[in-house]
UniProtKB/TrEMBL annotation:
GO terms for cellular component: plasma membrane. Residues 30-64 are annotated as: Disordered. This is Membrane protein insertase YidC. It comes from Luteibacter yeojuensis. Its main location: membrane. Interacts with the Sec translocase complex via SecD. Specifically interacts with transmembrane segments of nascent integral membrane proteins during membrane integration. NCBIfam families: PRK01318.1-3, yidC_nterm, yidC_oxa1_cterm. Pfam families: 60KD_IMP, YidC_periplas. The gene is yidC. The keyword Zinc does not apply. Gene3D superfamilies: 2.70.98.90. GO terms for molecular function: membrane insertase activity.
Length: 564
């Protein structure tokens, strides 16, 4: 099977995937109204994190997306890679700016674009990391309580290894909570320490919880849904448990498959293209994880994933600590598992992880050698071509021999006319006699297809390629070529490849389709990330050279046999 047919198969599958995902967005089932949370027989929290009953922990208050709690004072905490904005209303992290990742590619016209924002207090793209305490027998500051900040800004100074910001809440009963956020140098992990000081006359008992709450992705038009890689990346909740490993839940499935599970040694997250946020409770605690929808019937619902901790008891005059970690940053593969087990899986390659992970590792090694991600992609093509050389050699030699048989196949078509069965039988006898295998190209397809899809996932999901420049006019390998040079080159390569392919025995309609395939693929790839088009252009060019060389060798062997 020739390269053009192969690419046609890939294109049809990709288009089918895009159409299906867009159909799900437009016509998929919408979340129905949620019933009020009910107690469970085993005493575990319901979907909203509550366990009704006098002896049970207090429930976490329910928010309203339409009327959120008013903001109080906004304070900032910053190290050298991350700037956080914290609302003293609840002590929630309501904004995060990743200083090492600009929101747009760096160009001469805009050499200093603003940093990319992940957590956001804009209602249209609302995304907040919240935490708090709840209690059934005393006062407790949940994520809506009003804290007082020790200072309005805390910034990592030169020579310092960490920076902290304290928020304080106090109740008239004598219960006091000091919430401390700490950032270390060159780190996207935020350490949360809550100290509960019981100055009352009674034992205080309660539970700590952490949750992530965000608005859905704004609906994109058909053009953006096709051209924007972020539209095809997973967008939703993810969590990890030692037994089931990484699992994910898209927003459309929050109502159909809600999470409600007690896990020890896990974490919860909200994922999107390139970046994610995760709450990581202590690994030795049994935590109840759950999902919920805030205002599911409103025009702007919000999706929530929560970690509800075990009971905390503090005697009068005593103090206790509650800790958790918050990751706010990029999907830096190869480093995340050192923070928490399974955190590397947030790259979310799905069933292609077994192929995509080694491809990403190899691409990273090639980048460390070349210093340029575009060059690394070219080197990756050459390595894959070398690995598959024997298979593609058999494919191209079969194609070259079939091209030599075209006059004889044409004669068979004229001889048998419209009798397709006899025509096929005669062709099979001819192929057998000349030792040509028309199915020689099938095995390379079975191997290259998962590699192609895996590499598509790597190039689309790898944060390293985001805004990574190549040479000249290409400032972002994760975005389409702004001058369409690579798609044009790919069109020319595909056109030449198509002209070299054998057409013997091909249906006339199929032959006409093959003639327009180069143009269609050129237009199709004009909106692909330039890194992926670079891969296919180099891959097609090397295949073209290999096919040209094999055709020449077959021609010489045929001429030699004819004159012998």
């Amino acid at each position: 099977m020739n390269q053009t047919r192969t690419l046609l198969l890939f294109a049809l599958m990709f288009v089918a995937y895009v159409l299906f995902t867009q159909w799900e967005q437009d016509y998929g089932p919408k979340p129905p109204a949620q019933a009020a949370p009910t107690a469970q027989a085993d005493g575990k929290p319901a979907a909203d994190g509550s366990v009704p009953g006098a002896a049970s922990p207090a429930s976490v208050p329910t928010d309203s997306a339409a009327a959120p709690a008013a903001k109080a004072e906004l304070v900032t905490l910053q190290n050298d890679v991350l700037r956080l904005t914290i609302d003293t209303r609840g002590g929630s992290v309501v904004r995060s700016e990743m200083l090492a990742y600009p929101s747009e590619p760096v160009t001469r016209k805009d050499p200093t674009p603003p940093p990319a924002r992940l957590l956001d207090d804009d209602p249209a793209s609302f995304f907040a990391a919240q935490d708090g305490l709840v209690s059934n027998n005393g006062a407790a500051p949940d994520h809506r309580a009003l804290f007082a900040a020790a200072k309005t800004e805390a910034k990592l100074a030169d020579g310092e290894k960490s920076v902290s910001l304290d928020l304080t809440w106090a109740d008239a009963s004598g219960v006091k909570v000091v919430k401390r956020y700490t950032l270390n140098r060159a780190d996207y992990v935020v350490n949360l320490d809550q100290r509960i000081e019981n100055g009352s006359q009674a034992t205080w008992s309660g539970n700590a919880y952490q949750q992530l709450q965000r608005a859905p992705m704004p609906k994109a038009n058909w053009f953006k849904s096709y051209t924007d890689p972020a539209q095809h990346s997973f967008f939703g909740a993810g969590w990890y448990s030692p037994d089931s490993k990484f699992e994910s839940l898209g927003f459309l499935d929050f109502q159909k498959k809600p999470l409600n599970r007690a896990i020890t040694g896990g974490w919860i997250s909200m994922l999107q293209h390139y970046f994610f946020v995760a709450w990581i409770p202590p690994a030795d605690q049994n935590i109840t994880y759950s999902t919920n929808i805030v205002d599911p019937n409103s025009a702007s619902p919000r999706y929530l994933v929560r970690a509800f901790g075990p009971a905390i008891s503090v005697a009068p005059g005593q103090a206790a600590d509650s800790n958790a970690r918050l990751y706010v940053g990029p999907k830096l593969q190869g480093t995340l598992d050192a923070i928490a087990p399974g955190l590397d899986l947030t790259a979310n390659y799905g069933w292609l992880t077994i192929v995509a992970t080694p491809l990403h590792w190899l691409l990273s090694q090639l980048h460390s050698i070349s210093g340029n991600w575009g060059v690394a992609i070219i080197l990756l093509v050459l390595i894959i071509k070398g690995f598959l050389y024997k298979l593609t050699d058999a494919q191209f030699r079969s194609g070259a021999r079939m091209r030599k048989l075209q006059p004889r196949v044409q004669a068979l078509k004229e001889r048998y006319g419209d009798d397709r069965m006899k025509m096929q039988q005669a062709m099979m006898e001819l192929y057998k006699k000349e030792k040509v295998n028309p199915m020689a190209g099938c095995l390379p397809i079975l191997i290259t297809f998962p590699i192609f899809i895996g590499l598509l996932r790597v190039l689309s999901e790898s944060i390293e390629l985001r805004h990574a420049p190549f040479f000249g006019w290409i400032h972002d390998l994760s975005a389409p070529d702004p001058w369409y040079v690579l798609p044009v080159l790919y069109f020319l390569v595909t056109l030449l490849t198509q002209r070299m392919m054998p057409t013997a025995g091909m249906d006339p309609t199929q032959a006409k389709m093959m003639k327009v395939m180069p143009l269609l693929f050129g237009v199709f790839f004009a909106f692909f990330p330039s890194g992926l088009v670079l891969y296919w252009t180099v891959n097609g060019a090397t295949s073209l050279l290999q096919q040209w060389y094999i055709n020449r060798s077959v021609d010489r062997a045929h001429e030699k046999a004819r004159t012998a």
